[in-house]
């Protein structure tokens, strides 16, 4: 009978080494999450899964669902929506809408993104709500968030107005930002707009509050937030070269501190990490034992070039292990996944990369089966087995 064995093979993948060690980033935010979207690497997580008051950053969920509605035809960007008494009654950040207005979806989207309009968010919510109310839309937001893997988010309203139970984690906001950028690249360009003077109303409230957009560091989104309970926060993203970084912070004491901390995080993420190719497609990483095959071994490789984000100041090479359960029963086809390459870098989460068969291995004929049976019998009843039994 075939024995299941987990085999670990240590190996080192050569990368350029730099002197020094990587220090963890110390942030003044009460909670933070930094994610390299290009490589899928979490660079920083501080209280990242704690459900916290998200303030206006939760408007990103309303925007995502509005983008979905436009994409599937439930809304049109030139459609005019009415403003209810409840929507017009919101204070705080506002488009200064009133119940005589009928506003296009496009203007409402800009009103939420650039002006952080609580009223604009509520108008969109009521239009998409199953029962026509903002509360009904909030329940739909919570359900959709769960479907998207945002398990630490519960919504009570569409805009982050302070309310008991309205919570999001910084990790969930990072997941949401990632989806917004990946799923709706055309709409995403709206997040980099610095000004929106809707109907000439209240010129003092026409500027985007994102402090990074004008700094020339590649920042192009997404959303600020502030309430007394939440403090100052920001869901941000920046792209430099081929790399994009997403970050979320909350709990800062002032808008100035938020701006400073955001810029520090962006600079740290781009300057302290670099993407490096570590394995080329087709490179044999290891060999796996084969059971009942015409060949006793099969090479394991990666099906595509593998690049990883590495700390620039890490003096050590990448530590990796090959993990598979074997021997692997023939027949085996080239490209079949046989195991995983588990890569660990200090201070970063491990990466698990699939290893596939380098070539076909056909099932052995009568001679192979006879030889295998003989080896099994030898293992069970040969001298080594007797010695083991006597020593037991």
Account of the 3D structure:
Helices cover 28% and strands 28% of the residues. With 392 residues, the protein is α+β, with helices and mostly antiparallel strands. The strands form four sheets. The chain has a seven-stranded mixed beta sheet, with no helix packed on it. The protein has a five-stranded antiparallel beta sheet with strand order 3-2-8-7-6, sandwiched between helices. A two-stranded antiparallel sheet has the order 4-5. Helix 1 packs across helix 4 (118-128), helix 4 (118-128) crosses helix 5 (134-147) and helix 9 (366-381) packs parallel to helix 10 (383-391). The two termini are 22 Å apart. 39% of the residues are buried.
Keywords, separated by commas or semicolons:
392 residues, alpha+beta, five-stranded antiparallel sheet, disordered C terminus
């Amino acid at each position: 009978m075939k024995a299941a064995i987990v085999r670990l093979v240590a190996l080192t993948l050569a990368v350029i080494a730099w002197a020094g060690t990587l220090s963890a980033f110390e942030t003044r935010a009460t909670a933070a999450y930094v994610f390299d979207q290009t490589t899928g690497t979490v660079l920083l997580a501080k209280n990242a899964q704690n459900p916290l008051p998200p303030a206006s950053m939760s408007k990103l969920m309303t925007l995502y669902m509005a983008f979905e509605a436009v994409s599937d035809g439930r809304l049109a960007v030139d459609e005019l929506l009415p403003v209810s008494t409840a929507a017009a009654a919101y204070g705080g950040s506002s488009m200064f809408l009133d119940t005589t207005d009928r506003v296009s979806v496009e203007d409402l989207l800009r009103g939420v993104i650039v002006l952080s309009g609580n009223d604009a968010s509520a108008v969109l919510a009521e239009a998409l709500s199953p029962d026509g109310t903002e509360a009904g839309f909030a329940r739909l937001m919570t359900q959709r968030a769960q479907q998207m893997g945002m398990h630490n988010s519960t919504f009570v309203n569409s805009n982050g107005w302070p309310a008991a139970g309205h919570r999001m984690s910084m990790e969930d906001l990072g997941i949401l930002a990632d989806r917004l950028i990946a799923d709706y690249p055309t709409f995403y360009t709206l997040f980099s707009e610095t000004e929106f003077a809707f109907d000439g109303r209240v010129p003092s409230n026409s500027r985007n509050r994102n402090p990074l957009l004008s700094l020339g560091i590649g920042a192009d989104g997404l959303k600020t937030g502030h309430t007394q309970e939440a403090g100052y926060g920001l869901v941000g993203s920046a792209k430099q070269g081929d790399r994009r970084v997403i970050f979320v912070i909350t709990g800062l004491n002032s808008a100035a501190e938020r701006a400073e901390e955001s810029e520090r995080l962006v600079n740290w993420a781009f300057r302290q990490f670099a993407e490096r190719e570590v394995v080329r497609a087709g490179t044999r990483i290891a060999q796996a034992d084969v059971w009942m095959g015409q060949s006793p071994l099969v090479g394991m490789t990666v099906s595509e070039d593998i690049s990883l984000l590495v700390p620039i100041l890490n003096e050590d090479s990448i530590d990796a292990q090959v993990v598979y359960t074997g021997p692997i029963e023939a027949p085996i086809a080239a490209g079949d996944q046989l195991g995983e390459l588990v890569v660990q870098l200090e201070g970063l989460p491990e990466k698990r990369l699939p290893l596939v068969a380098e070539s076909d291995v056909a099932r052995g004929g009568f001679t192979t089966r006879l030889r295998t049976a003989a080896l099994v019998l030898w293992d069970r009843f040969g001298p080594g087995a007797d010695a083991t039994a006597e020593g037991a």
